Each structure stands twice: as C-alpha cells, then as structure tokens.
C-alpha cells in the first residue's frame, strides 16, 4: 500500500544535512476525498517556503503531514539522514522522531490556557527534554524577549491579545529548536494590525536562515518573505518555484487565484 | 433538650457521617478517573467493562445496593463489616456518577490542546498530567462537588445496614423523647452545616483553579 521509500545509495548518506528536506509520494485521503495526491516536494533549508492555494486544496493537510498531526496513507520524508516512511502503521518511536524535527504554529494559537506565557514556552523543554527548570526558564525568557514579549512572561494567555498569543506560540515552537518551523495560517485569526506584529516576527525568523514552511492566504506575506512559493490545488502541486514564477505567471488558474485573494480583503 | 442531644448528634456526625463521606469520596474519585479514562481510551471491546459498571450502579437504587453488599453477599460467602460494606457501596455508587463528570470534562478540552501537545512531542502521560488534567479539573469541579454533596446526604441510608450514623442517632432520640419535629430538624441542620462547608470549599477551589481565567 505504502509507496516505496526513496532509494538512495546507502553510502551517500553523509552526516551533512541535505540542502532541502524531501517529501515523496505523500498521499492522504479522507473517505472518498483525495486531499493529497502523491505529492513530491523539496523544502529548501535556511529558507522560507510559502504554500498557497484555495481553501480545501490540501496545503494545510500537507503541512500537518510533515508533523504527523495528519497521518498520510503513503509517502516518505527525508530530513537528510535517509527517507522515513510516513504511511501505514508507525511505531511510537518513529512518530516521536519525525515530530522532533518540526514544530507547528497553529492558526488558533492553541496555547495552554492554564499556563503563563513562560509556562507555555518551558513545558515541553522541561517535561520532554529534561532541561533543568532554571535553564529552561532562562531560555524561555530570551525567546519571549525575542518575540517582543519579555514583559509578558507571567501573563496568562487570556490576558494577551491574539497577536501576543501567537507570538508566545512562536516562542513555544522555537524552544523546541526544531529543524523546521511550520506555520498553519498564522495570521488568519487576527485583525490586520495584530497580524502585522506576527508577520514582523516571521520576517525576523526568515532573516535568521531558519527553515520555515508557511501556509497562508496573504500574497503580501509571500511576496515579502518567501524564497519559494508552492501553489497547491486539488491535492497536487501546481507550481513550485521562486516567488516571481508565481506572481508573474500567466497561467489562468494562478491569475484567477491572485485576483480572488487580493480582492478578498 | 437541645443541650442534651446535640453532643450525641455531633459525635455521630464526626465519628460516622463525616469520615464515611470523606473515605468513600476519595475512593470514588479514583474510580471515577479510572472509569472515565477507560471509557475514553480503552481499546474498543474493553470499553464495555467501565460502561457496564456505570450502567449497573447508576441504574439501581443505592439502598438496594447497600442491601446486596451487606445482606446479600454473605450468601456467597463474602461477609463484610457494616462500615466496609457502606464504604464499598457509597464509593462504587458515587464513582459511577462522578466518572461521567470526569469524562465530560476531558471531552470538553478542545482538540487544539491535544494537537499542541503532539507538536511539542509531549508523552501521553505528560499530556494528561500537565495539559488535560489541570483544565479538566476546573470544568469537573462543580459537578463533582454535586456528587460529593449527594454522597454526604446519601450516607443517611446506612442506618438500614445497622450503622449508627447521624440520622440513626436522631431516630433513636426522637423515638425516646417523642419530639420528632425538633430532632429531625436538628439532624437536617447538621447535614446543612456539613454541606455548607463543602460549598465553601467549592468556592475556594474554584477561585484557585480559575486564576488564569479573566472574569471581568
């Protein structure tokens, strides 16, 4: 059932990371709906990849498959140390190992409401990675400082604006020190003003040569920070290239999408 | 008359009603959490076990359960002291009801909380103890206190299996002094005081677990 993992000569698996992480043959169906139709995609390291596409195109599903929040039916992912099968039944260790490579920032933030900003950022380092509390908190404060919320470390999420909550969520993801940061429509639940705060943080991260994958409806964001634009429709990658390929494309569907999204505001 | 009888009633409350309530409720809470987790997370067919338990203990009157445990089980060779039989029955009965409050509270945790725990690679155990339990506790607290209060009042049935609890002492005094109105009113007031203490406890706990929620 599952697609054969990509065959690489085993001797070629050096310790150095691939220049991109590679998704191959990623397939996901929900009942009779094919959300992802054998998607192949290379995500460049130290770059920002923006996934665009109409609602229901499969772009969020693709992002979620990278973190195994959605379990693909078939496919593999290669972070540079050999392809890992994503389809079929996966052992708990495989799941943990795949998840440890990437961390998701959600549209609805999903902060833990019973923990302070700092508590949100330090929970996983302390309880999953066994980092001593004092060290995790020092690092957590640094990260909150980085997203402009140093003064809010002791505030509960309920006391923060949406933009602040999303920035805490970004700090929480950064605390995991993942290879790849995944953003699922990070500004869609925010007013334009608050979205701008979050976009500023994202732009900072993009400048730090981190690997970011961002699902968004914002063409402005794509234009500003993307190194690569991937256009997804009906579970297939329709375009995959530098931003100008997308913005200057004469393809009728891409033009229609650009017009639709820009007029929607 | 009050001065003579009040100490006897209070003593029965302190020696029987209160400890019986506390011990039974503590055991009921353990049963409730195990049962709720079983109904949510046990693999398919095994879910029947906690479901059957809740079905039986919610579906039959507590006084009948008391009689089965105390008077019925000896027929099967299981003889329990009256207090043990009372604790077993009250705990099983309350545990069945409370498991539904616990289950509802866990079901009320938004899916996004579980996804956040997953993306942070939290183990199932850490997810439960650090993410789910603290949020669920706040939601389950009011209905659980309801069950606790019901349990306290339910202890008044144990006179039927020979235990001299607060209500039984009241009955004895009323039978001797022919003042049932005064005696049972006094008994009722003592239950009311005990339950008021629980209501107060609920207020304090609710405030404590709601520190993160903006109320204004």
> Could you state the order of secondary-structure elements of chain B as H and E?
HHHHHHHH
Name the shape of chain A in a single word: globular
Regions with little confidence, pLDDT below 50 for 5+ residues of chain A: 1-16
Give the N-to-C terminal Cα separation of chain B.
Answer: 50 Å
Please give the count of helices of chain B.
Answer: 8
- Beta-strand portion of chain B reads under 5%
Strand/helix succession of chain A: EEEHEEHEHHHEHEHEEHH
Number of strands of chain A: 10
Helix content of chain A: 25-40%
Largest beta-sheet details of chain A: 6 strands, mixed
Strand content of chain A: 15-25%
The first-to-last residue Cα distance of chain A is: 43 Å
Domain ABC transporter (chain A): 21-259
Keywords (chain A): Amino-acid transport, ATP-binding, Cell membrane, Membrane, Nucleotide-binding, Transport
Membrane topology (chain A): Peripheral membrane protein
GO molecular function, one term (chain A): ATP binding
Q: Explain this structure to me?
A:
The complex is a heterodimer of chains A (265) and B (216). By secondary structure, chain A is α/β, with parallel strands linked by helices. Chain A contains nine helices and ten strands. In chain A, helix 3 runs parallel beside helix 5. The radius of gyration of chain A is 19 Å and the shape is globular. Helix content of chain B is 79%, strand content 0%. Chain B has eight helices and no strands. The termini of chain B are far apart. The mean pLDDT of chain B is 95. The interface between A and B is medium-sized, with 29 and 21 residues. Chain A: It is found in: Cell membrane. Chain A: Pfam families: ABC_tran. Chain A: InterPro entries: AAA+_ATPase (IPR003593), ABC_ATPase_HisP-typ (IPR030679), ABC_transporter-like_ATP-bd (IPR003439), ABC_transporter-like_CS (IPR017871), MetN_ABC_transporter-like (IPR050086), P-loop_NTPase (IPR027417).
């Amino acid at each position: 059932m599952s697609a054969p993992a990509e065959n690489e000569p085993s001797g070629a698996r050096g310790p150095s990371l691939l220049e991109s992480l590679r998704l191959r043959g990623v397939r996901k169906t929900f009942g009779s709906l094919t959300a992802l139709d054998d998607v192949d995609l290379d995500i460049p390291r130290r770059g920002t990849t923006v996934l665009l596409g109409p609602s229901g195109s499969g772009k969020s599903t693709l992002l979620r498959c990278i973190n195994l929040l959605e379990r693909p039916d078939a496919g593999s992912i290669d972070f540079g140390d050999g392809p890992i099968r994503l389809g079929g039944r996966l052992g708990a260790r495989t799941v943990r190992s795949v998840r440890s490579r990437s961390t998701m920032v959600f549209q609805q933030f999903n902060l833990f409401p019973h923990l302070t900003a700092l508590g949100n950022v330090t929970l996983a380092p302390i309880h999953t990675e066994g980092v001593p509390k004092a060290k995790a908190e020092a690092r957590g404060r640094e990260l909150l400082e980085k997203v402009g919320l140093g003064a809010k470390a002791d505030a509960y999420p309920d006391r923060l604006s949406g933009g602040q909550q999303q920035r805490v969520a970004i700090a929480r993801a950064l605390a995991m020190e993942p290879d790849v940061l995944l953003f699922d429509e990070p500004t869609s639940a925010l007013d334009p003003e608050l979205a701008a705060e979050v976009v500023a943080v994202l732009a900072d991260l993009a400048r730090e040569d981190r690997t970011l994958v961002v699902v968004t409806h914002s063409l402005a964001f794509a234009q500003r920070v993307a190194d690569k634009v991937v256009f997804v429709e009906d579970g297939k990658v329709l375009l995959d290239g530098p931003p100008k390929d997308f913005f200057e494309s004469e393809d009728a569907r891409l033009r229609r999408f650009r017009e639709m999204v820009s007029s929607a505001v | 008359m009050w001065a003579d009888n009040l100490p006897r009633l209070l003593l029965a409350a302190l020696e029987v009603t209160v400890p019986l309530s506390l011990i039974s409720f503590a055991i009921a809470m353990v049963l409730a959490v195990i049962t709720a987790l079983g109904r949510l997370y046990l693999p398919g067919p095994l879910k029947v076990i906690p479901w059957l338990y809740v079905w039986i203990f919610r579906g039959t009157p507590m006084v009948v359960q008391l009689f089965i445990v105390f008077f019925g089980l000896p027929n099967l060779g299981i003889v329990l002291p009256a207090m043990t039989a009372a604790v077993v029955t009250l705990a099983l009965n309350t545990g069945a009801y409370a498991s539904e409050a616990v289950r509802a509270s866990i079901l009320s945790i938004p899916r996004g909380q579980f996804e956040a725990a997953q993306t942070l690679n939290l183990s199932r155990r850490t997810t439960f103890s650090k993410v789910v339990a603290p949020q669920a506790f706040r939601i389950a607290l009011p209905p659980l206190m309801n069950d606790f209060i019901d349990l306290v009042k339910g202890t008044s049935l144990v006179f039927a299996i020979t235990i001299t609890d607060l209500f039984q002492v009241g009955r004895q005094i009323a039978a001797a002094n022919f003042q049932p109105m005064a005696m049972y009113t006094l008994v009722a007031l003592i239950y009311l005081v005990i339950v008021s203490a629980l209501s107060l406890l609920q207020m304090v706990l609710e405030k404590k677990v709601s520190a993160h929620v903006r109320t204004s």
